[in-house]
Queue: 3 jobs
Job 1
Amino acid sequence: MNRSGQKWVDGFNTPDLAPLRQCFMDGAYLLFGHTFLEQHAQLGYRSDWADDQFRNRLEKILFYKAAGKMIHNNMQARSYF
């Protein structure tokens, strides 16, 4: 919980958080890719489809992160956000 008087949202470009920015973004893209694909096609991270498609956890992570980034960028370009 933020203390009274602190900013509501932390800035990722501050010297303390800047080194972690990419890690936060990668996690957000992975979750976005999983959520979008699960909601729209039942192809989430824990789906039977995903278990059949990927040999290991790293392949799954890379796929859902890339899917999330692509879907997010496409949606931004179309002004959905």
Note: The chain is about 60% helix and 0% strand.
Job 2
Amino acid sequence: MKLNKLTRFPYPVLQDETDDYLSGGFSVDLEVIESLKTGGLRIECSIGLSEEVLLGFVQSGSAKILLFVTCLETYFNEPFEVAYPSGSIEVERGKLAGRVKVLSLIVSNEELKGFRSDNFHPDYENAFFALSSGSIIAVGDDFTIDVGREKLAPVESIFSLAKGKDIPTGEIRVDLDEEKITILSEVKTYESIYKIRNSAAGKYILMSSIYLPAIMEVLSALQQDASYYEDRRWFSAFDARCSLEGIDYKKGEILESAQKILRAPLVNLFRFMEEVE
């Protein structure tokens, strides 16, 4: 069953994208709890429903609230019923991985032979609808979440250092066409980077001097054409990290986003230097 917020129906449906109803709304707030120990996923939700007819259906049991969970990577596509005004669902380990879509719906639990409301748009004035059990009568919020350990991996794990040709001493270049984001430098610079890397403060220095500009280069490339890099192994991890940090890499300030991905590298460097003084 393929659903999205742009799906249209031959009868009034409460949703933000249409004016089938004069007033009222249906909203869902989610809290996602992922167990890295068991691999299971728990979604807790708080539901707002202010359209009186539909609220009456839900409270009487004539309709139910569903979260429709879809994961293309694992071919998972299942609805879960949740209680009103708050409830939760659990998905067992292995069912979900990577990008997961969650769409909230209200669905009839029985036949609604004389479905009408004074709250319908005037186009439906005096109209009655016969809906079968399982008919969608409201479409609420949809969410995208990332599932799995990938988003928690150190960001530097998706990078590799390599020697490059025709690069001035002290400069770097970034190659995004490999399975890892490759930071290239000439031999002397490459050897100096490795020396710094193995020092106590090395990680903190390189975050600001090497990884920060490299990530800015990645963000710039993704803003131009993210689809070109989607088959690279580094892309899914970078995409998940951006999602975790609330970053839309297709737009926004590149420098600000890069610092957020690295979780304020200068602050971490200053903190380290204070600790060793």
Note: The chain is about 25% helix and 30% strand.
Job 3
Amino acid sequence: MKVLMLNGPGLASAIQQAGYDHVSLELIEQTCIRTCQDLALEPDFRQSADDQQIVQWLRQDLTSASALLINPLSTQAAEAAGYAAALVRALDEHAPATLPIIEVHLSNPFVDAQAQPLRPTGCNVGLLCGFGLRGYVLAIQALHRQLAANS
């Protein structure tokens, strides 16, 4: 079962701003891949600084995934609303209602009014925030449990 893991623009700078000195994009990727492999899941980890690339991956690859983990970050506050709307549209149009989806944030997105969680209406999205790197592990474990329950 393939877990599509998408990380949007600004992840590297968010790591630095949040003070996660021991965390890097490479460590996040390694941790996600190892956690998936330990649970017999197929990891598909991706990151792009281009918000349109994230939307395109959602449109093209959701149907071949068994689950989705997404950290949608955006560093451009002025463009964040348009990017979030495009992500929600892509999820609503392309995510099967039964697809397990978890949105992950290293820190708490509720602190910053510009960074709000996604709110699609056509699918159910869980949210993990404020757990740092551990949030990715918890999300993968939760997706694994959902997949096992649906099998």
Note: The first strand starts at residue 2 and ends at 7.
